[in-house]
Every structure is written in structure tokens, then in C-alpha cells.
Amino acid sequence: MTVLRSAAEYHRLTRYAPNRISGGGMDPLNQPNPYKTYPGAERIDLPRDVTLPKAPAWGILKGDLKRTSQPLDLPALARLLYMACGFTAQVQHGLETFYYRSAPSAGALYPVEVYLAARDVPGLEDGLYHFTPADFALTRLRRERPPAEIPAPCLFLSALFFRSAWKYRQRAFRYCLMDAGHMAENLHLASSALGLEAEVDLFFLDDPINDYLGLDTDREACLAMVGLGGKAEGTGRPGPAGGTPTAEPTAPNEEIFDLVSAAVRVTAAPSAGPPEKNLPWPAGRPRVLAEPDWEGFDGPTLVRALRERRSRRNFVPQEVTQDNLARFLDLVSGPELAGTVNLGLVTNEVRDLPDGFHHWLPSTRTLDLRTGGFIGPLLADTALNQDWMGRANLILAVSTPLDFLEAQCGPRALRLAYLAAGRVGHRAYLGAETLGWGCCGVGAFFDEKAGRVLGLPPSEDLLYLLPVGPYRKRTHGGRPASA
Mapped to the 3 state alphabet, what secondary structure does 157-208 carry? Predict the structure, then answer.
């Protein structure tokens, strides 16, 4: 059994290098099922004839819209789960039907599962449920009222590790955390649009929660909780509840990856404390980016942005105005993520801004040029030669000084950082959609080489890259048209 001395050690051991890549070797006969099912368990269909909110995406992302608090009942829960976790479109690939979902997933492998502890939700009996997106239904796992220590109603986001490890091997824990971050941010934003309470909690005690959900943590573990306005009725540790239905195997031969299991164990330690508000970054010569003009801005609703969100790679570089750059950065910069990750931006053809890699500090609205020049294609080379990245006007880079963060927060820092990266990434997808741009998340790159191209400080660890910008769209007749 592998034992890690720190969370940062997992990050270092799973770095890609030109002579060392852990992915590949996918066995099509052992491909994981993207849906977790419990044969014979009771199913509760969620209502489908619900009215969805018309709140604009930009207002929700900026936090400017404050809806009147709404009670959580079964129709409201259905709206929330559809917006955050549901299917948004389908396409045929040969004989197979592929379903797009409102939250993206690395490699379209969808390792994240959603559970609900229900207490006093009108229209739904108390108990523990599993959300099944393929049926848009809840599967009942427990009939008893949730333990007093659980702040029900609340959602639990877990990851089935082999779904990602089937492709990404030992690096899979990174992707599982970022996927959970995408989902957590989707729940946060959808709740805001619906007028529901939602609080993302990353500081829960792992063992009692995983026991309550009936999870084997070598295969699946809870990575985040999302409170829906409930409060704990008592203190202590919830004990395991018996009688969990047995789920179908994820794959014919579900392999356990030792580094992934070791990372789950080491990051399960309770946090030593919250991170500081600002992470370290070398002093430079920052320039202030003016506030954008949102007056009269006409963008999509959040529901439309979620439905139309795709991972887009067919970028067409065009000049980007500073006003649109400022809008995008406004939409990406969630205040609750401060102190966990640093944000940087590779720019190409932004009016009155030099090309290069800039550090973005939302609290002061400043861009600090770290590395000058046309570096997009060089960065694309470090991302396993994904040349399309180099054509994007912008590449958002999410990083953190992992050793520094772990010294503050303990080994849970790895989870905090990658979940935050996923949340930022989700805002980037929706922010791009709001502006009529495309976005595509990239988690596969030669870590150290990419850091050198960007000119990251030696202590900084790159987590996520997101190319963003105008792209070539398709008309209804199938012909491409410029954005």
C-alpha cells in the first residue's frame, strides 16, 4: 500500500513529462459505465414539467441578482438537479447515443455521483437518495431520517475513481476533483438563479460521511457537500447506516490505482485552517483593468448558457477589446475562491494590451505581465501538442503554490486547490458562452515545461488551462460561420 507524506507529493508524482505520461492503454472491453445503478431499488421520478428561471447568466455569475429566498420542495429540487447535473442534448455516434450534460467532464467520463440526504422536503420522504441522470429520478438508499449530525437537506458529490482512471491512470484524482468543482459551481450558480440556499462545504469529516453513504473509498469517496439550507440537529459523528442496496459494478474489472487511493487517504485529514485571502506572488508592475460597461448588455439566460455549453476547440483569433476582456474576467472571478488559486491569462490580440502571460488579481483589478510574447503555440506544445489551443485569443491558467497552501491548511490543500480550479473553470465555460465565445478545459500538459513557458514562480503549481475566445460556429445548414 502506497503511503504519501504529503498531498503535494501526489501532485509531483503525477506530473507529465515528455518521457513520462501515465494515461493511455484504454481497454474498450472494460470501459466504465457512466451511470451508477442500484438494481431493484425503489425509484422516485422527479417532476419534469417545471418552470425554469429566466435570470441572465451574466447577472448570476457576477452575483448582482439576488432572488427572494424560495423553499426547497420536490419541484424546486428537480429544477436544481436538471440545471446542475442534467442532460442538455443528445447526439448519435454510430449506434450509440451520447448525452451532453450541463457540467463538463474530463474525457467525457463523468466520475461524479450525486447523493441527497432529505429531511423535511415537501413532496419527498426523509431518507438518503442517489440521483440518476439517465432516468431523471432519485433512487432510495435509506428510508430512515438522516442522522442528526447531517445538515440535511444537503447534497454529497462523490467520484467513482475508475471512471477517470480508465483513461488517466494515476493522474485521475486530479480530474475527479476538478469535475467535482465544476459540479459544485453549477449547483452554486443554479441555486442562485432559483432563489435557493446553497453552501459548498469542503471541510466535512470524511470517514463518517463515506460510511453514511456506504462507499468503499478505494473506489468512490465524497469530495464535496452542498448544503441546501438545512442545519444539523445534533453534534457528533454519524454512524454507518445499514442495508444499503448493492450497486452494479462500474466495469467488468474495476482496477484500483494505488496513488489515487493514497491521495484520497492523505487528503481526508481535517483542514488545519482556512487559507489566507491572498496567495504569494512576486511583485511586478501591475496595470489596472477598467471596469467593463454592462449597461444594455444582452446575453443568454443561465439556463440557455448551460444548455448550449460545449467544449469548443475551433478557435478563430480576432481582436478582443479590453471591455470584453474585463467582462470575461469579471464573470470568472468568484470572490469565494480567493486565497486558494492564482489566476493568470495568456493574451493574444487584445487591444492595447501586450501579448504574453499576465497575473490577474481580482481584488485590485490588476494585470501584471509576467512573460511577454506570442506564447500560445508554445503552451499548446506543452499540452501534448494540442495545436488548436494556440489559436485561442486567451488561455486562462489556474495555479497555486501547493506547498504554501498545504502548510496553511494541511494535506486537504490538494482538494481545496483542484476543486477551486474546477469551479473557476466552470465559470470560464459559462462566461465564454455568455460572451458568445468558446472554451475548452485542458488538464493534460507537461507540468514543469508549461510552467516554464508561462514563467510561473518556482513555487507555483499549474492545475488547469482553459483556452477561450471567438470560435467558428456552425449554421443550421452545417456550414461554418465566423463568430
Answer: EEEEHHHHHHHHHHHHHHHHHHHHHHHHHHHHHHHHHHCCCCEEECCCCHHH
The DSSP secondary structure of 98-124, one letter per residue, reads EEEESS--GGG---EEEEEEESSBTTB
Half-sphere exposure of 99 (CA within 13 A, CB side): 14
What are phi and psi for residue 336, nearest 5 degrees?
-75, -10
* Residue-level pLDDT at 474: 65
Cell of 386: 494540442
384: alpha, beta or left? (left if phi > 0; alpha if psi -120 to 50):
left
Exposure class string for 86-120: b at 16+ Cβ within 10 A, else e:
bebeeeeeeeeeebbbbbbbbbebbbbbbbbbbbe
pLDDT at 481 over 50: no
Read out DSSP for 36-97? ---TT--EEEPP---PPP--BHHHHHHT---PPP----HHHHHHHHHHHHSEEEEEEETTEE
Q: How far apart are CA 262 and CA 217, in angstroms?
A: 10
- Three-point CA angle 41, 100, 107, nearest 5°: 95
- What number of residues does the chain have? 483
Tens of pLDDT, residues 387-412: 999 999 999 999 999 999 999 999 99
- In the block, which residue shows the cell 476543486? 419
Question: How far is the C-alpha of 32 from the C-alpha of 333, rounded, in Å?
Answer: 35
Q: How confident is the model at residue 23 (pLDDT cuts 50, 70, 90)?
A: low
Angle (nearest 5°) at CA 373 between 367 and 374: 110
Enumerate residues 6+ apart whose C-beta is below 8 A from 431. Answer: 61, 327, 328, 331, 332, 439, 468
How is residue 45 written as a grid cell? 421520478
Q: Which residues contact 77 (CB under 8 A, 6 or more apart)?
A: 46, 116, 121, 124
Contact criterion met (CB below 8 Å) for 35 and 132: yes
**338-342, 353-357, 477-481: which range is least confident on average?**
477-481
H or E element at residue 367 = strand 366-372
Looking at every residue in the chain, the average pLDDT score rounds to 93
User: Do residues 226 and 198 touch, judged by C-beta distance below 8 A?
Assistant: yes
| Coil, strand or helix at 452 | helix
